[in-house]
Records
---
Amino acid sequence: MIAEQASADEEQWQPLSVWSVAYFVVSGFLALARNVWALFPVVFVGIQMDQLWLVLGIASVALAIIIGAVLQYLLFRFRVMASRIEVRQGVLNRRVTSLEFARVQNVSIELPFYYRPLQLVTLKIDSAGSSSDEIHLSALDRSHAERLRANILRQRIETESAAGAVEAEEEVRDALLISRSIPDLIIHGLTNNRAWIIAGGAAAVLGQMGDPGERLLGSLFADLGSDTAAALADQSIFIVMLGVLSLALMLVAVVTALSVLGSILSYYGFELRGNSQRLTVRRGLLNQRETNLRKSRVQVIASKEGWLDRVFSRRNLVFEQIAQGGNDSSGGDETKVLVPSVTAPQSLELSEAVMPSPDVFALDYQAVSPRLLARGLLLLGLVYVALAVAATAALSLPGFTLYALGVIASVHALVVFGRYKRWGLALTGHHVVVRSGLIGVTYLVAPLTKIQRVRLRQTIFMGRADLSHIGLQIASRTMEVPMLPGAFAREVVDRCLAYVESRRESWM
Amino acid sequence: MTFENPPVALSELPRIADVELHPVQRSHAWIGLVLWLVICAALAAGAAFVLQQQQPPPPEWLLPALLLLATAQCIRVFAYRRTLRYALRSHDMIFAAGLFWRSQTIQPLCRVQHVEIERGPIEKRFNLATLKLFSAGSSMATFAIPGLAGDDAERLRAFVLDYTTPSDEADSVTEQASL
């Protein structure tokens, strides 16, 4: 009864809480920071200007953002209908977004750091369509947001299957599939470059830090500068090289530290829970985020191992959903769920928990044709011979550059060989698996039901040798393997088509 | 593990290699040729005008080289358009194309989200049409067959539409809800 009463209220157009102004201010500043390169000339002029004008300029920009945020708050209305949610928003460009619950792909609840004292959250609803269909409701009461989300999830399931009652019951006992501890996240930061998370926020954060930070960095670089200059002036080349080396090491150390920090910031308290139909991901230190998605929306499971992952025997597991039309960075994060730095057995267990999956480590893979290796080595040989000729004849460089070139060429040849050995495709009764990589091995697993379209491609020369590239289009990506034996490629295509067309199962 | 792996008798599967492909309308290739001849003529006129006014006259081989390039492009377009072939099976559509790079794309009809027929002014004049089938995911280009006779395109579209609205309603709701 109470729930029905509440939903009747929600069918009226309603504004957000006043606190949503904070959300609009922050997103305004972030938009500004993202376009900071476009503002570079303005900033450059600003530095040369009078301090008073500079302060005035910054103040007016800040004021404009705040006024814009207040207007956005005043003009924002939303209502929740029986089967859809509608939003009217925008200051200069008014727009009305109407999102059917059946089209909802993810629902996430975010707790940004500036709402932490108030315990207010942002509800983000993504559709399977374009990113412009996303709806963000900011500064909601936690309980209100939870209720809205439960509503959306329940109605989405009711519209799609009759098993709503069973689902509602199961909702309570989502089993914990995996959680990640701080050591796991440190490993993740070491093996994967997550420094960009910091870099993305740095523009805004540096602005807040103001003078002290800048002065610190400035003095650091000034010291470095004078040291290097001195070394160049009166020390031997050995010292200079040592300096360059230590500088490079220092850079690596700084980037690694940032990466570890970024990993902890975005994946702190990582938890993946699931029931028979749904997955729930919880993560984040400053901005806590909780995302729900349906298992059936997972199109491809990517099990990725970078070369550093190999040192720690870890791999990242990525559940890929339908790729959105515009591949912009702001919403791109939401279509893929990444489980950071799991072990190989864990990766198999998790895959199995999301959908029935084959043991990718135990499959027999069809190798690609040695022609790929031959072609790669031939191209490589041509490039390096050309370089060698240019180095000796045209530039008349000393002899040892030729040896150096030889070493680089052989390392490059090893890379080509390694990649060639990794390529492989396996077709099981219900799945297609693609293996690739160089030092680390990446596996892409897709159920055959998810295949949208297939393509065979060959040059005339490949046709004579009966070889073919194969491309399997899935809603989240295209899985491609080069230079497979023609008979095998045609068999894969025939079997994939027969599977998709005879069963006609839904791919969502 | 609920995972099972039943064997499939290979000889019983339909094979794409057995399908006979039909070429698209011949006029599609001729239109391409004429179009590119016009474009090249316009470019040549422009280039000649600019080159005439160059103070140090351009090298003598430049003009023949440009002409050769233009001819090659016109021939390439014509020859490429002559390679376009398609076939309809009861559950999918096949499109093959390419001179040096040959590709064969197969679109299962049960994965088609929507269908479009596109006709430009020139295509309309010669009663040609392009049939486009859209499926989920934006990575590969849309499945499109150009140079179809107008009524062939209409009939193909009708077939695809007929196929994608199946009798069991429950399936179609989720299928169409995606885009």
Note: Chain A touches chain B through 49 residues (CB under 8 Å).
---
Amino acid sequence: MASKPRIKAGKAKAAGDVIEVKTLITHVMETGFRKGKDGKPIPRNIINTFTATFGGKEVFKVDLSSGVSANPYIAFYFKVPGPGDLEMTWVDDAGEKIVEKVPIAVG
Amino acid sequence: MDQRLKLEVVDRREFVVGGAAAAMLVALLGRTGTATAQDKQPTFDEAMKAIVGDKKADESQVDIKLPEIAENGNTVPYSVTVESPMSDDSYVKTVHVLSSGNPSPTIATFHFTPMSGKAEISSRMRLAKTQDIYAVAELSDGSIHVGKRTVKVTIGGCGG
């Protein structure tokens, strides 16, 4: 259901700079409160967790609920300790997992 | 009507272990037949209490940016900023975004680390109706800070 996420990370001029990372991913974020044409509730399927790690260490994490809009947009900040990969993971209720790495350069 | 409803419920619950089925039936009928397969959601007060507990919440440091009037409740942009040095000794651990009028009170929970650099997030929320939005920040020293904003919603965005 989810497609390749779009990620935009700011540029760090030096180690220790704080950059903004903007992420957007396609997902229906079905709330579980809606009913289908047959009157039966449509089961919930949302992205429930978003994690950002750098060098294996957790930088930022979000627990999402049905109150997050479809195609979740999450923007957060990151203090760049040095060059490396920022790894971001989205997991939905169906167990689908999307992992995306963004190289972060310094200078 | 009562009889029909009962039969339907039993049909749908055929696979449920025998003992629990009877109790569930009573619960479902008690809820005027509109029950969905959803687990029971906590109320806003319960959700708030689970976070704040007996602590005293400070009403400073947390700033919520939210439109005063949201025309489309399906996607309402917002951002939350918490004043903090975000150092190893003093940082914002968690920010809970809660809604007083959605079917599920928790919108999202953001977990920060000193590597976050800045306790600020932007995202988009669904709003079912006009209501208050709360951002509850838990700091590394154990203190709790709350911010609140009221938002008017023209068209609700929770479907159903």
Note: The mean pLDDT of chain A is 94.
---
Amino acid sequence: MIALNHFLCRTKTAFGTQALTHLPFDLSGMNARKPFVITDQAARDAGVHLALARACRDTHLALGVVTLTEAGDLETLYHLFVDKGYDSIIALGTGQVVQTAKALNLAVCHGPERLRSPAGPGQIKGPLLPLVYIPTHPETGQDTAGETFFSGHCFVSANLMPDIAVITADTMLGTPRTAVLDSGLSSLATCCETFAFSGNLFARSYAHAVICLVMDTLLPLAQQSDHGELLCQKAGKLQQLPLAKLAHAAAVSGYIQSNLPDLKTRQAGAHITAIHPAPSAALSSGLCMALALVHLLENSKDTCPWLGKLLLPLTDAAHYAGVTGPEQPDASVRVIRELLHALSETLPQGMPKTLDAAGLTSRQISEMSDLLTYVQP
Amino acid sequence: MVIPDYYEFSSRALIMAGHDALEQIPGLLLSMDAQKPMVITDQGVRRAGLVDILLQALDSRITVKTIQDDVPADSDLKTVHTLAGEYKKYGCNAIIALGGGSVMDTAKGVNILVSASSDNLLAFSGANALTHTLNPLVAVPTTAGTGSEVTRVAVISDTDNLRKLLFTSDFLIPDAAILDPRMTLTLPAPVTAATAMDALSHAVEACLCLGRNPLSTAHAHEAIALISHNLLPVIRQPDHKPGRLALATGAALAGMAFSNSMVGMVHTLGHAAGSVCHAAHGACMAVLLPYGMVYNLHKTQPLLADLLLPMAGADVYARTQPADRAQKAIDWVDRMNQRLHQATAGAHAVCLREIKSQDGKSRVTGHLLPKIAHTALGDGSIFYNPEDLDYDDCLMVLEAAFDGAPLDPSRVKKG
């Protein structure tokens, strides 16, 4: 155990079929009566906002719903929010919807001028208004992390984490297979690195749960998903629950990212995406992270404290205990490689399973060796 | 992985765990604009010198306005009201709770009153009666057991009306939990044993009971591994700082787990025994834990079997036939109690009749068992137990646990 471990997760996770119906009760517990719902066109077209409205019918809540494309820029949202006296924010969607909701929260509580310059940890003091996050797709953990990007600036604060993440099959929209893979592999890489290298037992406990969720869900979901699935329609019945589980994994991986901002796989993913000549859609950030993870684990077998134990969440107790201690590190890496291979089979064009196959030159790989090797502190 | 149809998981305390974690408190209080804390503790903690260690860790930026060390063993309404008055009198703007479960619960009660500017704690009892953030509260546990430093619950006695008031709200979760091994180094072996078994019971019930979910189970398994691997070494070498930190971390993880999954019959019966006989909570948990596991065995066999891995390690797990793993996990807890009994020269009780008061008298007597069973039926945790329990079931388990006799499987209902 290292000298000092910190862990903070401000977000309550509510998962399952009744999660939306519990929301009015939770909002009431935060003294929120007039939530401002921000959503996007896809969620609106699929009628997801109606499920939220139904859950809030006959309660004390007075919802206002805006769709990002019609509401325009943040200034418009800000004036709407202040003029109409809203007291809380519900981000119904992912990505830009959530980043906008976080920025709006900052603007309302600290003044719009707060958004003109970036803010690092500790610079945003005081609580923000209640923020509820209801994803419509599995994403990559950014939505629940304590940070937001707005107008080229980054704002970091644990207070930016949502108060509640409501994750339910009812709000899941159809998600293309590539997006499913991006989310699942991003969560897997974040949490495998956390579990294998971090001495932070609180982060490792969350990571354990995420790895189990991804290993249960990702491959079957990738096999079922349609490559060209429409984003503006509700997910098919069979996909809804696995998508929600993957969104759950992504949300929790965001909690971990907030606490362990220096994860090598995330940095490597961003680096590879930046230097790679192919369009980012062809080589998602999640896939880059997973490929970096394999390198990282392979390069660090002798220094990685818990690589052998990683086999436990990657498989199950019986499998883990059946492999002898010295063989467990190799077995852990093998399970991840096999998963990548099986996922590749689900794509008509396949996908690269190593950084070399992804088109990175030996020089590019060696230049990022510090991101692909763990050095024991 | 089986996921329930619906579940929630929330653990909002900032956790700082480490060998010099206390030294983080000044920066933490400053970040919350809370430079004028009140310290709430008890006389035992003060006599052990822990208040002095805390004060040395605070620097000149922090002004401790008052130190209140009159918290009784069972947190009560009068103490809460008195301390709330002191908080206002000294112009405090934060609380540092330094102690075990009673100190934590008292501090949570005081924080309700001073944050709401109220003098009626009863108005906030029950579930989710709080609707606003409370003043800053930093929890520094001096035992590794209750997990109260990370939970959303406070239990405060209303001694005038002979009842215990339950308060539950996410706002009751302390802003920060500081886990520093210096705070538990002087704990006597029997207290170390009983509080660690309390934490173990939180973790085991979090895995078995009806509110379990993937996040609570992951936290509970990590807690079980930490407690299992470190408890006996710490009993043998009390000043082993890494072991102490591991136990404190295990207790916090177990607290995060059970706070989100709830607990079952081990706590149902333990709460009742504590209420009727004033028996130490940790001692009751240690004795009752294997009985709860046996009682629920037929409904939780695969879950119990999974516990053998964090308890006994991969080698034992692999060597044990799958069908025998659940029973082996129960045997492991039994054996842990026996080894703690030996390591503490008999001070760690292995049956209810062995739980003693400080003057050496038995706390739990045979004629009180029916009253304990009756009281247990009113405990909320009974609803989360995998198997149903009625009065006769409670009495049957208590009678067996009283003498340390095995539970007769043929008398356990198989609902």
Note: The longest strand of chain B covers residues 94-99.
---
Amino acid sequence: MTRAERERDLRDRLIHAGHLIPLPTRGLATFTSDVEAVVRGVDGLVRTMEPVAGVVEIGVPPFLPEVEFVRTGYLRSFPHLLGSVDVFTGSPRDHRALMADVEAGNPWTERLSPAHLDLLSAPCHSAYPLHQGQSLHTPRVYDIHSRCWRHEPSDDPMRLMSFRMREKVLIGSAEQASAHRESGLGHGPRLLSDLGLPVSRVVANDPFFGRMARLMAEGQRDDELKFEFICDVYGGDDGGVALGSANYHQDHFGGDFDITGPDGGPAHSACIGFGLERIALALFAVHGMDTGRWPTAVRDGLRLGP
Amino acid sequence: MTSETTTIREVLAAHGRLSADAHDIAEDADLYALGLASHATVNVVMALEDELDIEIPDELLVKSTFASIGDIRRALATVDS
């Protein structure tokens, strides 16, 4: 089987087991109780992963105000993945025209207006605006769970457009950010291997857009800024799927948001992030469709109950 | 050639965020060792294209093209021809 065939096979097995309800839009899926219980279990494990002391958990909206979104640089590097929100702000007369278009089967979204909100692509993007223009004398570490969006339609159940992530992000000096990333390189893969997932840690790059993509990817790899925790989900030479990553951003976000670090220079940052559905589905792929037959240690780790 | 080298130095000074003055460094000085980061390289590419009114072909948009002032000058020479 090719990789694409193996992806569809996993999707079919998840559907057949009642874990995944397919939606008409590629890249969107609805999950049922067993998957949700595993997602909750994984989420809890990430939340209690080191570091914990001094970490502030924040609940954030699943989008960023447009000005802050532009500041993150996401639009510059990943325009192909973004999504933004439109709203209706018209009069009753505009509403009648809108409904007439809907009922006639005509295009109608042109009658909406931009809300100047962009869908969050990574939880850590919510943390930097909190400190815009500030000088930090001590590092700040946030634990953030959010639904994220990346527009990459696919039949791979492991590659969703709308998915949940939990991340731990540190904003501080270069040394503090490096140490945070280093800690994640140890704790991250261990969290996954403790769940019986075969994981390796590899240097990686983000999927940059356009003609500068190679230049950006080369730079990111040469400087070892991104490591992914790859699980062999699909088998063969190309069966790996990234379940999480540990990223050192240098002063990228500190510069964008004008944050000064404890050493007086632009703040550095690092984040350790996990894709919750990806980890859950990897567990189903590796341990089977019946969570009742998963190894006891795995069930206990996820608090799936007796 | 001289004016092109001057343009390269000016663009690096404006966009390279180097730890040294781009007007004073050697032709073969390692720009990455002087702190040229990926985002800055992208800005350097766009500024060079604007200043020299050229489009650098995709195959030259790799790190080795921007390793030193001399490397950039030699790469741009192939674009001009």
Note: Residues 174-193 of chain A form the longest helix (20 residues).
